[in-house]
Amino acid sequence: MEDWKRTVYISFLCTFCTSFGVSQLSPILPLYFHEMGVESAEELARWAGLATGVTYLVVCLSAPFWGRMADKHGRKITLIRSSFGMAICNFIIAFQHTPEGVVFMRLIQGLVSGFYTACITLIAAETPLDHTGWALGLLASAQLSGSLVGPLIGGYIADEIGIRNDFILVGCLMLIAFILSYLFIHENYVPNKDKVTLTFKQLKVALPEFDAIVALCITSFIYAICIMSLQPIIAVYIKGIVPPETENLGFIAGAVFSMMGLAQLVSSSPIGGLVDRIGARKVLITSLIYVGVLNIPQAYVTDVYQLAAVRFLQGLGLGGMLPALNTFLASKIDKALSGQVFAYNQSCQFFGYFIGAVCGSNLMALLGFTTLFWASGLLFIVAAIWVAFKLK
């Protein structure tokens, strides 16, 4: 097997392990804080939100630094550093006894995170250009499948072995990613350790298509806002459209939420191959419009089956969006600078997650769900128009 293909497949396994581990923690964080003595729903929500949001914010701020280090010292070392660092953080979280301790370790985890972005950078640099869409689509499938499976069984695992042991299990998954990365991932890129890292202004001069890269980073930011503005409150929306006596609301909300992830898992690899055949720009513009249009009908559904169906159809388009965006971005940059550029793109994306989580619930509280669905849908369409005019 060619080295680049082996790297893609090993990266697939590592990405699944890390994504599965990270995603299953969100449902159990409030339960963990409850074990520590936090009683009220408001306090549980505040601590859980803080523990989640602080990771996004720190990843946003630290990503450019790690991107420069990846260009200077190699991308494989970034995978090793992030997977080992996240493993240690989760082992330590398992032995915390205060919410403040958990939040602090989540902050440190955000500081050492970046495994998925490092994988994207590595795959974009090592894969032949005519196979980049397929490879990044496969990587997106691993990330999405881990994110889909994690929340569904994370609570069950915590019930069976205990929350603290669940954190230890997540740490072990990160260690598996560390071992696989160290032993089996091959990197042809030879870093220049004497190379001077570029400032943002110097990077602008060094990249002939800097304006196109900025446009793609803004598109990542818009994507993240739209996705995260709905994610924390979709269960509240479902509660309003089901009969008052409905039982197992949490399971229903999780199942409806997972429909989008399932659709992304189904579509990301095939659409990644389509990117290689017809071009990333066409796929990206089409996906943005398609997803934006299907966001709006969700404001008018009358039962959970309609909502699940629309979200599944929407997820088919989302599955091609990030592979197309990352492939397009990879085609615009020198491979020697790809770590730094992808890190800036990650910063924009995670800042969008942070803004979306904060602003989405506030917009809903002020103007209602209908306005929120329309605003998110129109933002996707605006992003498509932005890409069409800014990127050639």
Structure report:
The chain is mostly helical and 392 residues long. The mean pLDDT is 81. The chain has two domains: 185 residues, Growth Hormone, Chain: A, CATH 1.20.1250; 193 residues, Up-down Bundle (Growth Hormone, Chain: A), CATH 1.20.1250. The protein contains 16 helices and no strands. The longest helix is centred in the first third of the chain and has 33 residues.
Strand content: under 5%
Low-confidence stretches: none
* Helix proportion: over 70%
Mean pLDDT: 81
Helix vs. strand class? mainly alpha
Q: Please identify, by name, the CATH architecture of the largest domain.
A: Up-down Bundle
- How do the helices and strands follow one another from N- to C-terminus? HHHHHHHHHHHHHHHH
Radius of gyration: 20 Å
CATH topology-level name of the largest domain: Growth Hormone, Chain: A
Distance between the termini: 35 Å
> What do we call the CATH homologous superfamily of the largest domain?
MFS general substrate transporter like domains
Keywords: Cell membrane, Membrane, Transmembrane, Transmembrane helix, Transport
Pfam family, one: MFS_1
Membrane topology: Multi-pass membrane protein
Protein name: MFS transporter
Write the layout of secondary structure elements.
Blueprint: H1 3-23, H2 29-35, H3 41-73, H4 76-93, H5 99-112, H6 115-126, H7 132-161, H8 163-184, H9 200-206, H10 210-230, H11 234-241, H12 249-278, H13 280-295, H14 304-331, H15 338-367, H16 369-390
Keywords: Cell membrane, Membrane, Transmembrane, Transmembrane helix, Transport
Subcellular location: Cell membrane
Protein name: MFS transporter
